[in-house]
Amino acid sequence: MNIGWYLVVSALVFAIGAGGVLTRRNPLVILLCLELMLNAANLALVAFSRMHGNGDGQIFAIIVMVVAACEVTVGLGMIVALYRRRLPIDVDELRALHG
Amino acid sequence: MDEALFFIAGIGAVAGAIAVVTLRNPFYSVLALVSHLFSLAVLFLLLNAQFVAAAQIVVYAGAVMVLYVFVVAYIGGSDQPIGPQAGKGLTSLAILAAAGLFIVLILATLGSGLAAIDSEGASMSGTFGQPGQIGELLLTKFLLPFEVASFLLLVAAVGAVVLARRRGAIGVAAGEALSVADLFRMPEGTGSMREALGRPTGTNTREDGPVAPRPGLPTPTGVSAASEEDPA
After folding, report:
1. Alpha helices per DSSP H over A24-93
2. pLDDT tens across B58-114, in order?
3. Hey, is the C-beta of B31 within 8 angstroms of any chain A C-beta?
4. Residue B164 · residue A81 · CB < 8 Å
5. So what's the ipTM on this one?
6. Record: contact A76-B138, CB cut-off 8 A
7. What pTM does this model have?
């Protein structure tokens, strides 16, 4: 397959993830959509790595996976903290983040 | 064969992504993301990135998604939005913005004039994308990012524990000042096993009775009591 097709899939998944971040209001689902966008970027990185026949892009993809795992742990910790404080699990309700 | 696999995996990835965004129940969204991740792993394999594909399945679909499932099960997937639904106009505007983003991305990549985009990729060595090559790169050329990533993971783990723990404040009366000894006192309501059994926690409790429920904290009586309470 041509590399361009992989980039098309990557762009499509990225746009779907961006649309999800814009439309959904549950922070859990917003985190899932962020994962989608990071995975689309990973696919593009691996595709470009294959295009050049050079392994550097795959290292970059693995580092992106590490950063995504960190983002998930901190984000889920924040959501659990919200739940413990009986705050609504809804990003539209959480406009004021003081205290 | 490659073409068929690419189209199956690509359609699976896009369908999984659409399902993540459109499904109302967060639990089903997580499951859709797992199928999306498996499709992406197949695409990585087609691109000769064996190690990245394996890491994708083990780390993402294995570990991170289990974390998601636990949190969704803990919070309880609320498929109904709590407040009034956002306006239809805003939603269609967001979809329009996403479509515009897709068009811009396609124009940027396919219009970039990269000659190799229409090829199957450059020739590569026999070990391309295998664990040996990845490990060699990580420990020679990319040693600093590797170490920084490990430190970042440590910081994130500690941060998640600090964020998600139960907050019990050390009680200080209005006139008292904090002393150095307060650093070593255990506050009440830190979510320990002892507290779950109704025993007193914290070193500043004197009497040997059950812990009085404190306002703002969930009653520490285990899973069944927590699920009966309505968080809304």
Report:
1. 27-52, 56-84
2. 988 888 899 999 998 888 756 555 444 556 777 888 889 999 999 999 888 877 777
3. no
4. yes
5. 0.91
6. no
7. 0.77
